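REQUEST FORM: STRUCTURE PREDICTION
Request ID: SP-0412
Submitted by: Lab K.M.
Chain count: 1
Length (residues): 340
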Amino acid sequence: MSGPRVGEAGAPLTIAPLTLALGPPDHGVTRFALDCARAAGTEVLEVADVTGLAGALAAHRGVPLYLHATDSLFGADPDDAASTVERLARDHPVGITLHDVPQPAEGAERCRRRTRAYQRMATVAGLVVVSSEHERHLCADAGIAVDAVIPLPVPDLAPPADLAPDERSVGVFGFLHPGKAVDVVAEAVAALATAGDRHVSLRLLGQAAEGHDDYVRAALETARAAGARAEVTGRIDDDDLARVLGEVTVPVALFRNVSASGSLNTWAASGRRPLVYDSDYTREMERRHPGSLLMTDGADLAEDLRRLLDDPSPTRREAAPSGTAELGRAYRRAWEGWLA
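STATUS: Completed
RESULT:
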C-alpha cells in the first residue's frame, strides 16, 4: 500500500495518506483537517462540498485517504453521510477522525440516527481516531472500536501588541448555537442588568452557526431588553483572536453537550481560563491541562458571573504553549501503524 511520502526537516520520510478537507473553509472540522495535515506535513485536498468529490479525486485513484468527518459535512443527513464514506472506501483505503461523536444529550432520535451513521463510517475505515477519552467512551457504548485518541491541540496564536480590557463583559467564543448555551448566558447577563449592573455587556465573539441566526438574535434581545449591552462580532480574523479574547472580562464556554472542543484550547492559547460546566469532558480537559478551566454547576450562573466581573483575575493565566507540533507527530505515528 502506498501514499504520498512526506517528512519534516531532519526527520525520515514516512508514508502518509492524502488528507481530504471537505466542507466550507470556515467550518471548524474543515479547518482542523487543514491544520492537522499541515502539522503532519502531508498533502491535503480541499473540496467545498460532497458534489465535488468525484471530480477532485479522479486524479488520486487508489491513494489512501484520511477523513475528518462530521455527518453534516458528508451528506444531507446522517445516512447520506455514511453512504458517502462507504463510497470513498470502495475506491481508497480510508482512515477517519470522527468529530462531534453522537451522545444521548442531543436527543434520543437524533443520537440514534447519527450513531448508526458513525457505526457505518467506522466499519469501513482502517483507522479510527477520536479527539478525547470521553469520545472513546461514547464510541465504546455504541460498539465502535477506536484505534487512537489524539487530543485537539492548543493552537498557535500571535500575542496581542496591547490590550484594552473591557470594563464588565461576558464573552462566548466560536460558532454560536444552542449547544453553547448562549441563551443561558444571555439570561444570566440580563439578570445582572435587572439587578442594577448598568455596565454589564454580552459579547458573542463569532458568528451564528448555520440555521441559528434567530437563536443568536433572541439571545442578544434578551440581554438588551434588561438594559445590558450586547453585540455579535461576526468572524474574527486569526491575527485578532488573542486581542479580542484577551479583552473580554469573563470568558464563558458553557457547553450543553460537548465531547471535544477547539474553542477551549483557543481560550487557553490566549491566556484565559473560561467558566465551564462541570462535565466528563471538562474534567478530562482539566486533568490534561491543570488549572485551565473554572468549573460551575450552573446553579446560580448570574452570581458566578458577578463574582468574576468584580474580580476577573481567576480568568487570566499564562498563555498555554502551542500543541500543533505534537498533533502532527501523533497523526504520523497513527498513519504509520495503519499504512505500514
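NOTES: Residues 1-13 have pLDDT under 50 and may be disordered.
Reviewed by: T.R.
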